[in-house]
Amino acid sequence: MLYYNTIDCVIVHGLSQMDTGAAMHPTHSPTALIEANDLCVGFGGRSVLEHIDLALNPGEIVTVVGPNGSGKSTLLRALIGAIDPDRGQVRKAAGLRIGYVPQRLHIDPTLPLSVRRFLNLPGRHPRAQVDKALARAGIPQQADTAMTQLSGGQFQRALMARALLDEPDLLMLDEASQGLDQTGTADFYRQLEVIRDEIGCGILMVSHDLHVVMRAADRVICINHHICCQGRPEAVTAAPEYRALFGTDDETALAIFRHDPHQHPHDHDDEVRDAG
Amino acid sequence: MLDDFMVRAALAGLGVVLAAAPLGCFVVWRRMAFFGAATAHAAVLGVAISLALSVSVFAGVLAVALLMAILVTLTSGRGYAMDTLLGVMAHSSLAFGLVAVSFLTDVRIDLMAYLFGDILAVGRGDLAVIWSGSLLVLTLMAWRWQPLLLATVSEDLAYAEGGSPRRESLYLTVALAVVVAVAIKVVGVLLIAALLIIPAATARAFSTTPEAMAGGAAVVGVGSVLLGLWGSWELDTPTGPTIVCVATVAFLLITSLARLTRARALH
Lengths: 276, 267
Prior knowledge:
The complex is a heterodimer of chains A (276) and B (267).
Chain A: E1 34-43, E2 46-56, E3 61-65, H1 72-80, E4 87-92, E5 98-101, H2 115-119, H3 127-136, H4 152-164, E6 170-174, H5 182-199, E7 202-206, H6 210-216, E8 219-224, E9 226-231, H7 233-238, H8 240-246, H9 251-259
Parallel strand pairs in A: 3-7, 3-8, 5-6, 6-7
Antiparallel strand pairs in A: 1-2, 1-4, 8-9
Helix pairs in contact in A: 3-4
Chain B: H1 5-29, H2 33-53, H3 57-75, H4 82-103, H5 111-116, H6 124-153, H7 155-160, H8 165-187, H9 192-204, H10 210-235, H11 239-266
Helix pairs in contact in B: 1-6, 1-8, 1-9, 1-10, 2-3, 2-4, 2-8, 2-9, 3-8, 6-8, 9-10, 9-11, 10-11
């Protein structure tokens, strides 16, 4: 975690080619749930996102990683339409239902809102459906608890339950495992695959829990204002620059790295896939 | 019945507090209290303009309050903190309004009536305006209730689900301007914000749902108007401020009572 200034991570030839396919060419993916073309976002003259091209296909789990302040949350917020891009556009599949779990959500204590009422915003749902969603999220007892009375972990689960209520086509999670303990976090990411298999949604998430995330993702996108690299988790973790960016004390990353037959010299300029 | 000025006063007060109840809840939830005060203060400028142009005070106030609310919404988030910006706009528009009124030497106006209201002087025409505005606001609130609540909880959630929080807050802005315009005759510009905030804050103490809080705010508002009217008659005190005093006493009583009950329940 110490080397945040070493940014440009590089994926070496072969690994990056493994399964990127259509996803690497967002403009040519008519089946994509959501895609961004040449997305640029800036705040007050400071550029936060530069020329982001990405596409997410149904059933795919994609994780966005990057240092603090690299624009991960901004990327998700631009994709949902909360931020108007300076350039480029976001295209969503017609009738796309997005389940979004934000990084932070502050509910003013003056607003009396039970968990059940929160799940009935803005559309009302049958009582049984809400109860089922809460049970699945692991908070079956909290239906009538006020949102402001929930613990951090329970709050996160309530957000997740609401996001899944309408069986979204695309689930977007911004640091969704915050407030969960270690077991909770592991369960949470294991559940993502179950959810994906059950409702067939695409999942796009931002996370810091690298070792768990790496296990759950089909594809990892490493961003630092621009897309540094993307590919299968093994590929991205194996890149020495990636390890410089996120540290080498990560057990899983190391384990994957050790099993990797390749060594990665830095001079493969022609083989670099630099999407930025 | 409408010949009795007390009946007209009561109806005028009820019209205002009923519209103010759900809107006041949003003002509290979204921490827009100062925003409401700023919009109300700007109304004095509206009074001056309508008198100078000899148009209806309601129209002038509505226009200026709308302009003010939209201006504040547009300029927020551009370098100055919202708080500071509102402070500058609220008090400067009040000051400019008062200065502008003083130029109108050929019109003798009772400035106090606009600052603190003159509910006992409400005529039939005023009643029609107040209730039209009030019903408009209530309809708007009922129609946008769910999306407004979601946008209040989280704008990002609303965006993700295809909503438009910006449009929702524009609805709130318009509703606020209408309430200011209809309330000026009842409690005056300086006390309008009180009618928005105090009933809603009182209702918070005993509400477990947003709808109950809006309903409770309406009940507290209606009680304050009726008791305030009676009190000002008995004690010969200015009516608008008396209504606000009653609401404040209700707030103190009910909030402390709720605290006590909760403390006892814990033991």
